[in-house]
Specification:
The structure holds 2 protein chains of 2 kinds. By secondary structure, chain A is an all-alpha fold. Chain A contains 13 helices and 2 strands, in the order αββαααααααααααα. Chain A has one domain: MetI-like fold (Orthogonal Bundle). Chain B is α/β, with parallel strands linked by helices. Chain B has 2 domains: 166 residues, D-Maltodextrin-Binding Protein, domain 2; 140 residues, D-Maltodextrin-Binding Protein, domain 2 (3-Layer(aba) Sandwich), CATH 3.40.190. The radius of gyration of chain B is 23 Å and the shape is globular. The chains are: A mainly alpha, B alpha/beta.
């Protein structure tokens, strides 16, 4: 006989409300995805907002060079953004966790997190002012006599990646700071006592122990950069296109909703596929970190 | 209460009931863009319409494509009675069966319009503006001018031009004409378009980014909407607008009646008011555009502005007009080519 008597009221599991909400959210997502899927196999009729019969032509169009080029550009930009965000974010997160003075930590938190509250558009416009022909950087360089003619930074992949890195930094810093704060300091002290230099301690102890944070930060930034829209739209100036910009161009300015839907599905498949391809490397890294 | 008092109260109540239908007239719902567009239409058209009919006007606003999509979803039971949109988008409304076929006898002012104003049996242009070259006077060499569309191909403009990425139709129309063709056989203009690529610095995706590009000087030369250029000039940005000798490509914002409206008579009256000569003059004074009513008397300064056409001669010599059907049908084809060969 169980501890709960036969006459005792049975309690409903507490997770049920959460499960219900999750199911509703998943249902809505699947319904929207179903609609996108439906549009992707309908025929586009130029000069009409009605779609025609069923076709696979939209997917065949994705094989054209422009879409391959934009897909490749999206993957490269997303990858480089994730890597540069990691390289720049790690030292900030490390300092944030390890600095002893309270006011320095507060200052770092403010500097790292405040950009989150300014919104993507505002931050992107700020980059336009910084990178523009008559912007901050060019003005300074010209005033110092370093350059004669302004450097082209806007409407280039460099400008887009720079703005995306800055946009992604707060999230990366928060993920890394969490991982770094969970490192057992006694492991680092033990390594130092055994004669390891501070650099060696960091390289052989701290960094491996923070691998889960490094991996999750890189994956998160890669995945969300895959769907970046406003930054490439404004900083790219129509010359640097990512998949989401093409979806916008085809769907909302060209009214070719079927092709826009096919492009959206391509973006989804590529994002999931990329994460799937990363999976073995991630597992290997995490296992290595556990061994340490 | 005396008998006289009782009668007075009953009379007052009856008067109040009689007055109620006037006070509670259902508003006419106008669907258009927000911001300055709505404010201008409210100031010039809606206020006059309400003054004449006593019917209030309510605006619902949104972006061009959002509104089109919503109208499609509401087909048969429209939320609005009247829609104002770009004329070639208006063609999409009518081809989808979203607009009423207009009975011109119910729009007396339609008889006073320049011929291009009747865009189709379903929509009438309210005003016109042009896509034309413009440049920052302070950022170009002294005495610089643009007299022909060919000037955009000058090597001196390398990496200086801003073009529309969301509606490049005017560039296809111009390139085709320069190459001896027209919109229908636009492919003759392809070599010219490809030759223009080195001169293009950026492609704007909205009116706002168009204005930013020229305001900041990123693209000191731009093919842009005259309305946007005049707006910037009014803010003190030194811009010169040119209407090349070959003419400028005209765009129209047009009005149509939503099929299924419950306020058909009021909708016709609204259009008639919008096309009234005085209302047109006021509207164009606000928007800095060209009137469709040939009797509209504009301020001489406004009338002399490039791209503001007020005479039949100007329509003959300075305006490049393409049918909305052609534009709506070919725009997706043009956009595909443009994205593939110009933007990337």
């Amino acid at each position: 006989m169980s501890a709960v008597g036969a006459g005792a009221p049975r309690r409903r599991p507490f997770f049920l409300p959460f499960l219900l909400i999750s199911l509703i959210a998943a249902g809505l997502f699947l319904a929207a995805l179903g609609d996108v899927l439906h549009y992707s196999v309908r025929l586009f009729i130029p000069g009409s907002i009605e779609v025609g019969g069923f076709t696979l032509a939209n997917f065949a169009r994705l094989l054209r060079p422009i879409y391959r080029t934009v897909l490749l550009a999206t993957l490269i930009i997303s990858f480089l953004t994730a890597i540069f965000t990691l390289l720049l974010g790690y030292p900030v997160a490390y300092a944030l966790v390890r600095v002893r003075r309270g006011w320095v930590r507060s200052l770092l938190i403010v500097l790292a997190i405040t950009p989150l509250f300014t919104g993507e558009i505002v931050r992107t416009y700020a980059w336009i002012l910084v990178l523009g022909t008559n912007g901050f950087i060019n003005s300074i360089l010209k005033a110092l006599g370093i350059i004669g003619a302004p450097l082209s930074m806007l409407y280039t992949s460099f400008g887009v990646i720079l703005a995306l890195v800055q946009f992604s930094m707060p999230v990366m810093i928060m993920l890394l700071a969490t991982a770094i704060s969970h490192v057992d300091r006694s492991c680092e002290r033990a390594a130092a006592n055994l004669g390891a230099s501070p650099l060696m301690v960091f390289w052989r102890v701290t960094l491996p122990l923070t691998t889960p944070g490094v991996v999750s930060g890189t994956v998160v930034i890669f995945a969300w950069t895959m769907s970046a829209f406003s930054t490439p739209q404004l900083i790219g100036g129509g010359k640097v296109l990512m998949l989401s910009n093409l979806v916008y161009l085809e769907g909302l300015t060209n009214l070719d909703f079927p092709l826009a839907a096919a492009l959206s599905l391509l973006a989804l498949v590529v994002a999931i596929g990329s994460l799937g391809l990363m999976r073995p490397a991630i597992t290997r890294l995490e296992r290595k970190a556990t061994l340490y | 209460m005396t008998k006289r008092t009782l009668l007075a109260v009953v009379a007052a109540l009856l008067l109040a009931l009689a007055a109620k239908p006037v006070l509670a007239k259902e508003p006419l719902i106008v669907d258009m863009w927000g911001g300055n567009w709505r404010d201008g239409a409210n100031q010039a058209i809606a206020s006059e319409f309400t003054r004449r009919t006593g019917i209030p006007v309510k605006f619902i606003t949104g972006g061009t494509i959002d509104r089109l999509t919503k109208a499609k979803l509401d087909k048969g039971h429209p939320e609005s009675d009247v829609t104002i949109t770009t004329s070639h988008v208006g063609y999409l409304y009518s081809s989808a069966g979203l607009f009423e076929k207009l009975d011109m006898s119910k729009i007396p002012n339609a008889g006073q319009l320049f011929p291009p104003a009747i865009r189709s049996p379903y929509e009438i242009a309210l005003y016109s503006y042009v896509y034309t070259p413009a440049f920052r006077t302070d950022l170009m060499p002294k005495g610089y001018s643009i007299t022909s569309w060919h000037d955009l191909w000058s090597p001196a403009l390398k990496d200086k031009i801003g073009l529309s990425g969301f509606d490049p139709s005017h560039m296809f129309i111009v390139a085709a004409r320069l190459a001896g063709g027209d919109a229908e056989n636009w492919k003759v203009g392809i070599p010219l378009l490809e030759a223009l690529k080195p001169n293009v610095k950026a492609f704007y995706q909205s009116d706002a980014t168009s204005q930013d590009l020229i305001r900041t000087g990123e693209t000191p030369v731009q093919v842009l909407l005259s309305i946007n250029a005049y707006h910037l000039i009014s803010e003190g940005v030194p811009i010169t607008i040119a209407v090349p000798k070959e003419g400028a490509v005209v765009n129209f914002d047009a009005i149509g009646i939503e099929r299924g409206t419950r306020h058909l008579a009021a909708a016709y009256e609204f259009i008639n008011v919008a096309l009234d000569a005085k209302v047109q003059a006021k509207l164009c004074d606000i928007y800095r555009c060209g009137p469709m009513n040939m009797h509209a008397t504009l301020d001489p300064k406004l009338a002399s502005m490039p791209g503001v056409f007020t005479t039949p001669e100007q329509w003959q010599t300075e305006a490049i007009v393409v049918s909305d059907e052609t534009r709506a049908r070919l725009l997706p084809v043009w956009k595909d080519w443009f994205t593939e060969h110009m933007m990337h």
